[in-house]
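Lecture notes, unit on protein representations.

Consider one protein chain, 483 amino acids long.
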Amino acid sequence: MPVRKQAPQGKTQANSRKKASKPRSGDVIDGRFQIVGRPLGKGGMGTVYRVQDTSGVQYALKRLDPALREERNFEKRFRLEYEAAAGLQHPNITQYHELFEADGALHIRMELVEGINLRQLLKQEKILPVPVAVGIARALARALEELHQNRVIHRDLKPENVLLGIDGSIKLSDFGISRVEYTSMTRTGTLLGTPRYMSPEQLAGKKGEQIGSESDLYALGMVLYELLCGKDPYRLRKKAEILEVINVKNQKPPKPLPKDIEAPLADYVLSLLQKEPEMRPASARIAGEDLGKWSANRRDLRQVLKQWVTQYSGGKVRLAAPKKKRSSFWKEAEKPSVGPSVMPEDEFVPHPQGGLLPAFMATIAFLAVLWGVGLWLQRDTHDTTHTRDMQVGTEGKRLTRDDKRVSLAIPLQLQRNKKKKRKVRRRKVAKAVVKRKRVVKRRKRRRRRRVRRRKRRRRVRKRRRRLRRRTRRRRRRRRRRRR
């Protein structure tokens, strides 16, 4: 058997410490970057931290887990992620700055996007207005156009990988399983990505070279459908397995969009979800141009996203409201207009921001209602007392019989109604009493019958016993005589 060479004890302890220790807030990496706060997120290959350099500029630092570095595929894929996004300069793509090694682990320094992702926005808003949803999809189409021009296929487009900045920017991130045309690590039958947003050719397990830009357009259609409807086009379960997703997408067509969405837009979204790649739009550039018919302009879109992100990223996030129908304001805004802007800037507001004024107005309305009810009750009591006191005039004169009859007509009618109600109640009570008496009589009769039957049975038994005794006595006497 081959004998392993034992390393010095100090080196093994140092290596084990390096592998076991994880970076914490305040630690310095490579002597340049200091970790600030908790990790921003954790994925399948590593963890993302917020770091700050010596000049005070903050970045996002992605660190490959040292335990995964021992496997060649993870390290190679981590390097390919940087190579795929390093040369890209686009406002809708997260910028990658450098790849370096420190403390026995690989690190990627990238742009830090302050804000939330698209999934967090969907959890709060459920359904986005059509101009906003299409505007986000158009920005993603521009990002995919830049990727495809540089021969990069993303292969993992989903709301979790779309970052919304606090300045209203839209960034496509996470190139962990992206593929560059001149390199391939995916074998036939290997599935990489999120099954819910994967295209049919990806679910079929085709080789990496056979999956092109049409796969990203399919994922774009899935995201746009979810932004418009708040649901998955195939109504899949949250934790659906791969086989279930494959069966549903192969057997069932996507559900139609709601009727309040324009028919041309609905047909275009469904065209992005075609099973055959040839039936989808030819490129991301064409898809972006086609979506521009229903999209809001960049300035209005940035203003709306800025309001949402500042509201939901500050820690005071309101609870998710139930699904609501679109108001007429959005229906008018969704109609495409001729000109550079789809909607005036002053009217393009997602929803009025709450404050003390609505609560103050609601309390005033409630107090006004209470005041009106009190006045109505006071007037009713005043009328009844007035009719009772009309027997004596204002000048001290006695009223006639006719006047009394007229003045007492209303209270008399009320008394009659009360008497009728009392009679009805008495009748009901009397009927109930009679019914109860009948029931009691029936029970007494049944008891009497039972007692009579028991007495008869006892008599019959006594007679039979007497007869038996007599027969026995007679037999004894006969026997004695015979003897």
